């Protein structure tokens, strides 16, 4: 339902996929929107996300359903222009440690039980995932044909074209920002570097900083955000199309014939420097690149062109946090580990709640009030 005649002024805090998606969906619904970011667009978690589009493995039914809707929105976008090199649906390939074959089979059976497309493969039957070394593959692996990947910086750039054409206002490099409260409700955003932005409603979607921002409002959202790193390789000749999730490296294709790499085994090697930035020994980065190279046919030499480090947003109970704060009306929160998969659908549903005042049933399990 269109609400274009009911103009609302909304301030969105956060320049990642959740903030940008919500801002664009609000503009589509007729709101006046200012998007405020601490630094540049996609400079936080969205810029270092593997951004694997999936609902693999075991999770609660409402979470699975929301993720499947998220994938559906990406499929619609993909169908509008299948030639885009930053959004693809070529499946996902997963295998665990050699001693976990029973766990892999159990995961496959669970996925099949609720209709998730899941195929058991072995080194002799992995022909439908080109570019993968048969020697590296575990004895038992799972291929999920319906999965895909997106480059979030490219997607954010694409959405921002619409944001600008619809009259949205973008303010970057504002530094520290806070939700302004008046008469018991959110009334805008105050920043250290760019002044204040009055609004009828506020959206807090600033990744791992979200719990700290709402803590100033007296709202507790448990935070389990770990350290993470995303490595982007130099261009390399490869045939990989699927996202690979393996015991020592996760790999996905990336625009420009590059690859994106991550994992979690090196978290303890990341240190925080005196200026608040993070660093990791280059030897660890090269080790990850070597692990990834061993997964690829012909074992090409992979060199790290760049890497980014920061906290990966994960709520304390692992479940997404979406919706209005009960104690601060007018302040809405978007905080989740699955920001890539849920990016489009979460922005759509949150914008609908802000513009209509009606709560969407698919977000009911994920309200911030569950931590009260």
Task: Tell me what the structure shows.
This protein is 26% helix and 26% strand. It has 372 residues and is an alpha+beta fold. The chain folds into two domains: 167 residues, FAD/NAD(P)-binding domain (3-Layer(bba) Sandwich), CATH 3.50.50.60; 140 residues, 2-Layer Sandwich (D-Amino Acid Oxidase, Chain A, domain 2). The strands form five sheets. The chain has an eight-stranded mixed sheet with strand order 6-7-5-15-16-17-14-20. Strands 9-2-1-13-22-21 form a six-stranded mixed sheet. Helix 1 runs parallel beside helix 4, helix 1 runs parallel beside helix 7 and helix 2 crosses helix 7. It is built from seven helices and 22 strands. The N terminus is likely disordered. The protein is globular, with a radius of gyration of 21 Å. This is D-amino-acid oxidase. It holds the Pfam family DAO. It comes from Arthrobacter agilis. InterPro entries: FAD-dep_OxRdtase, FAD/NAD-bd_sf. GO terms for molecular function: oxidoreductase activity.
């Amino acid at each position: 339902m269109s609400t274009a005649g009911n103009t609302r002024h909304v301030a969105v805090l956060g320049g990642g996929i959740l903030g940008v998606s919500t801002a664009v969906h609000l503009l589509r619904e007729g709101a006046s929107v200012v998007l405020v970011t601490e630094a540049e667009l996609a400079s936080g978690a969205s810029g270092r996300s593997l951004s694997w589009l999936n609902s693999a493995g075991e999770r609660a039914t409402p979470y699975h359903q929301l993720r499947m809707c998220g994938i559906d929105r990406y499929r619609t976008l993909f169908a509008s222009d299948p030639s885009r090199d930053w959004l693809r649906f070529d499946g996902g390939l997963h295998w665990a440690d050699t001693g976990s074959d029973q766990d892999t089979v159990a995961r496959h059976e669970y996925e099949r039980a609720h209709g998730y497309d899941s195929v058991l493969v072995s080194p002799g039957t992995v022909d439908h995932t080109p570019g993968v070394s048969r020697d590296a593959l575990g004895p038992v692996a799972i291929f999920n044909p319906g999965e895909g990947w997106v480059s979030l910086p490219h997607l954010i750039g694409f959405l921002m074209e619409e944001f600008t054409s619809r009259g949205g206002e973008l303010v970057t490099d504002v530094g520290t920002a806070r939700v302004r409260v008046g008469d018991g409700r959110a009334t805008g955003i105050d920043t250290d570097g760019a002044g204040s932005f009055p609004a009828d409603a506020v959206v807090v979607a600033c990744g791992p900083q979200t719990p700290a921002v709402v803590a100033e409002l007296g709202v507790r959202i448990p935070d389990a955000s770990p350290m993470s790193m995303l490595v982007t390789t130099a261009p390399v000749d490869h045939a990989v199309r699927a996202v690979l999730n393996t015991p020592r490296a996760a790999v996905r294709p990336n625009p420009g014939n590059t690859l994106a790499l991550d994992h979690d085994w090196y978290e303890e090697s990341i240190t925080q420097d005196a200026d608040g930035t993070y660093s990791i020994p280059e030897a660890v980065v090269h080790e990850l690149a070597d692990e990834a190279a061993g997964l690829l046919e012909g074992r090409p030499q992979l060199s790290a062109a760049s890497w980014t480090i920061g906290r990966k947003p994960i709520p304390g109970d692992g479940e997404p946090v979406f919706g209005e704060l009960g104690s601060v009306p007018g302040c809405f929160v978007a905080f989740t580990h699955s920001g890539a998969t849920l990016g489009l659908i979460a922005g759509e549903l949150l914008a609908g709640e802000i513009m209509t005042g009606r709560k969407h049933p698919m977000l009911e399990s994920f309200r911030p009030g569950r931590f009260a």
